[in-house]
């Protein structure tokens, strides 16, 4: 039967498209249903277009500091927000075309429309009811359309969308979600960012570098609340030096809208309140899973705190139905979605030695200036678990390459199990740490000890030497500090 598959994947984000390609590689007949854009949030509205915006911010920052490098730049350097956004959108479209190409190359069928599971093994695809953020597309050629499709295995990879707080719902004009923040028509003069997780801080960093007056309000006692407290404190100091205003342990209680601005009432932990008026506000208080309208109730798939409940291989409680990526719970990261996709498909295909997801080894990166990256346990979490630990630290200010780059503000912190010497956490703030963290991720994956790291040769001069020095410091052997 033409409409019958081994695997149907609902959603073509990093979870869905990687699942489809891996399934095709393993000889399974596979189709992906997509209702809006190939490549999901990550390529269209998340990871990639934000990094394109932040790259423009980095170039602007470097140009503005040309003098520090002995360069005299004639005239003023002014950001052209229309051109910056056009570059970012162009890159997003290039990415989603790339996924279309990969599907074609791997002979993955694309079914264009909105999918709903009607019973185990059956998916009904109808015309999408979702109002697209941008004109849909480009819809790839030769896609299949509305109809009933069957498959032995159905993988739900429908992702997530912005969460809204009651009374402070984004309206797309004065109160933005990441969609509007990604493509402003003009640069606001002032901006209030509610929430300092990765999404909030990346936008705060972008707009501040562009010269916007930025205030960040965070309910917890540190910015980027999931990060190690020391790393977060150093990042905050740098943001404040750049002119960002950060209010911790405070919440946006009320927002009044004016003709072209908002006035927010901020309630602080000490009981005081402050009113802040800004041209625009970004609501960055997290995301919620797309679990509605896909037939979960019809087939009895269980959810847990708003996400589909799965085991370490992506299996739900209903045989033949799986979930991966954002819809299956935190951390809500593209590389977590991709890894879950591979595990899920390889288990379906019956490959030997498929390891379940180990969430402790998922790195997290925030591409603000300075960058922040981490993997494993924070110092506070390790202590809360009752672990006996050794902690090493090394500052960028003692690293030759960082000084040569003019990027001497940063810190690497490593956490070891005192008894076994196993690396159980690594935390970094500073230039290029989102690239460097992978060294520690590999080390943790191989269950590396301090001994092996100390005997690893790091190239000189590189910022990566701060990683080795941090390990040495944990054992009282730092050479350059
Ligand atoms: C601003 C921003 C920046 C980010 N930056 C990073 C980053 O730097 N690094 C990182 O790792 N992560 C980042 N993320 C998170 C990352 O984008 C997500 O974790 C990732 O996209 C999740 O992939 P997914 O496949 O689970 O879902 P998604 O990418 O959300 O894809 C789901 C797809 O399913 C489709 N769909 C939904 N319902 C249906 C249906 N019923 N029928 C058919 N199709 C359907 C949607 O149209 C969508 O294309 C960022 C997110 C945002 C918003």
Automatic annotation (TrEMBL):
The keyword Transport does not apply. Residues 5-341 form the FAD/NAD(P)-binding domain. It is found in: Cytoplasm. Its main location: cytoplasm. InterPro entries: Class-I_Pyr_Nuc-Dis_Oxidored (IPR050151), FAD/NAD-bd_sf (IPR036188), FAD/NAD-binding_dom (IPR023753), FAD/NAD-linked_Rdtase_dimer_sf (IPR016156), Lipoamide_DH (IPR006258), Pyr_nuc-diS_OxRdtase (IPR001100), Pyr_nucl-diS_OxRdtase_dimer (IPR004099). SUPFAM superfamilies: FAD/NAD(P)-binding domain (SSF51905), FAD/NAD-linked reductases, dimerisation (C-terminal) domain (SSF55424). FAD binds at residues 51, 326. GO terms for molecular function: dihydrolipoyl dehydrogenase (NADH) activity; flavin adenine dinucleotide binding. Its EC number is 1.8.1.4. The active site is a redox-active disulfide bond. This is Dihydrolipoyl dehydrogenase. It comes from Phyllobacterium salinisoli.
């Amino acid at each position: 039967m033409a409409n019958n598959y081994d695997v149907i994947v609902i959603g073509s984000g990093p979870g869905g498209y990687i699942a489809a390609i891996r399934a095709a590689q393993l000889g399974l007949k596979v189709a992906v249903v997509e209702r809006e854009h190939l490549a999901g949030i990550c390529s269209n509205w998340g990871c990639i277009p934000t990094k394109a915006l932040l790259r423009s911010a980095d170039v602007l920052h470097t140009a503005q500091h040309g003098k520090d490098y002995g360069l005299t730049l004639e005239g003023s350097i002014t950001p052209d927000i229309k051109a910056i956004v056009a570059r970012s959108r162009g890159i997003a479209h290039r990415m989603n075309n790339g996924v279309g190409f990969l599907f074609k190359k791997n002979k993955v069928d694309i079914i264009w429309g909105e999918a709903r599971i009607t019973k185990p093994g059956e998916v009904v695809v109808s015309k999408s009811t979702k109002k697209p953020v941008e004109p849909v597309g480009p819809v790839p050629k030769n896609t299949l359309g509305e109809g009933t499709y069957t498959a032995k295995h159905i993988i739900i990879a429908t992702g997530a969308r912005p969460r809204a707080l009651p009374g402070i719902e984004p309206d797309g004009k004065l109160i933005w979600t990441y969609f509007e923040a990604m493509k402003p028509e003009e640069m606001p003069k002032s901006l209030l960012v509610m929430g300092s997780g990765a999404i909030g801080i990346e936008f705060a960093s972008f707009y501040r570098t562009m010269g916007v007056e930025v205030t960040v309000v965070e309910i917890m006692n540190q910015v980027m609340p999931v990060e190690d407290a020391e790393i977060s404190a150093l990042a905050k100091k740098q943001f404040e030096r750049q002119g960002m205003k950060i209010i911790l342990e405070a919440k946006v209680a009320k927002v009044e809208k004016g003709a072209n601005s908002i006035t927010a009432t901020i309630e602080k932990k000490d009981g005081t309140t402050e009113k802040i008026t800004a041209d625009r506000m970004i609501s960055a208080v997290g995301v919620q899973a797309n679990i509605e309208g896909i037939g979960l109730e019809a087939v009895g798939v269980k959810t847990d705190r708003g996400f589909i409940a799965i085991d370490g291989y992506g299996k739900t409680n209903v045989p033949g139905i799986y979930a991966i990526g954002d819809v299956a719970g935190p951390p809500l990261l593209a590389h977590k979605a991709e890894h879950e996709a591979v595990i899920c498909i390889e288990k379906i295909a019956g490959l030997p030695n498929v390891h379940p997801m180990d969430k402790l080894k998922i790195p997290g990166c925030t591409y603000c200036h300075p960058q922040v990256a981490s993997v494993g346990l924070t110092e506070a979490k390790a202590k809360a678990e009752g672990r006996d630990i050794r902690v090493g630290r090394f500052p960028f200010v003692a690293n030759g390459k960082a000084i040569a780059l003019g990027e001497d503000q940063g810190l690497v912190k490593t956490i070891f199990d005192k008894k076994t010497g196993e690396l159980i956490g690594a935390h970094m703030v500073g230039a290029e740490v989102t690239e460097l963290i992978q060294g520690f991720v590999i080390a943790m994956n191989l269950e590396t000890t301090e001994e092996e790291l100390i005997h690893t040769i790091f190239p000189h001069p590189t910022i990566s030497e701060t990683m080795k020095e941090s390990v040495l410091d944990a054992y009282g052997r730092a050479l350059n500090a």
